[in-house]
Amino acid sequence: MAFPYNETVLDHFKNPRNVGRLENPDGKSTEGSPACGDMIKLYLRVNPDTKIIEDIKFESYGCASNIATASIITELAKGKTIHEAKKLTWKDASDALGGLPPIKVHCSVLAVEGLRAAIKNYEERHGMVVNLEPTTVDTIRNRLRRVMNPMKGLDMVATNLIKNIKLEDGIIYLLIDLSETHQFSNVIKEEAREKLETLWDINEIIIEFTE
Questions:
Q1: What positions carry a catalytic annotation?
Q2: Pick from 97, 123, 120, 75: nearest CA to 6
C-alpha cells in the first residue's frame, strides 16, 4: 500500500511554518474542535496602511494534513493584502502541497475557513464592514453555531448548550447550560466571546453558567 502523503506534505508536517501565536493580534479566529479531530487557531498582523498581512501564526490540533495545510495557508497568505488573501481557496492550499488524499481534503477547507474568519475578524474590529445590519438574537445564535461543544463534537447551538440569549441596549446576556467549574467552561466562554465581540453595535457581553 502506497504511503498517502507526499514529501511536501511531510515537510510542512515535520517542519511547519509560522507556528505559534501573536500577542494582541489585529485579527484572529478559531475553527474546528478537538472533539471533531481537527482544530486551527489563526492570528494576523496587518499593516494598517497597505492592508498587507505582515505576520501570521497558527496553532493546530489534529492530523498531519491539518498541520501541513495550516502551515501552507499561512505561507500563501503572508505578504498578500487581506483582499488577495480572501481569494485563496482550499484547492490553492492542496495544490501548493502537491495534493492531499481525498479523505483529507477537509483539512485544507478548514485552513481556508480559519484564514477567512481571521480576516473577517480584522475587518469587523477595524470598521471595514459595510451595509451593517442591527444585531439580533438570530445573529448571535448564528455566530454561536461556529463555537464547538468539545463534549459532543457539534456546535453549542445544535447540542442545546445555550440555555438563554438576551439582547438589550447593546448588551448580550448569554446563559450556558454548564457548570462554571467544568473543564471546558473557560474554552467555550472564550470562543463564544471571540465570535461576538466584533459585532458593531454590541458594547458588552455577559456570559454566565447555570451552575
A1: 36, 107
A2: 97
Nearest one of 72, 74, 64, 75 to 37, comparing CA atoms: 64
Q: Which three cell numbers stand for residue 82?
A: 487581506
Pick the CATH number of 137-209 from 3.30.300.130, 3.30.70.20, 3.30.930.20, 2.40.50.140: 3.30.300.130
Structure confidence by residue, pLDDT tens digits, 80-94: 999 999 999 988 988
- Sign of the alpha-carbon torsion through 130, 131, 133, 139: negative
State the alpha helices, DSSP H only, in 18-81.
64-77
Any idea which fold 7-125 has? Sufe protein. Chain: A (3.90.1010)
pTM over 0.90: no
Q: Are strands 171-176 and 162-168 parallel, antiparallel or unpaired?
A: antiparallel
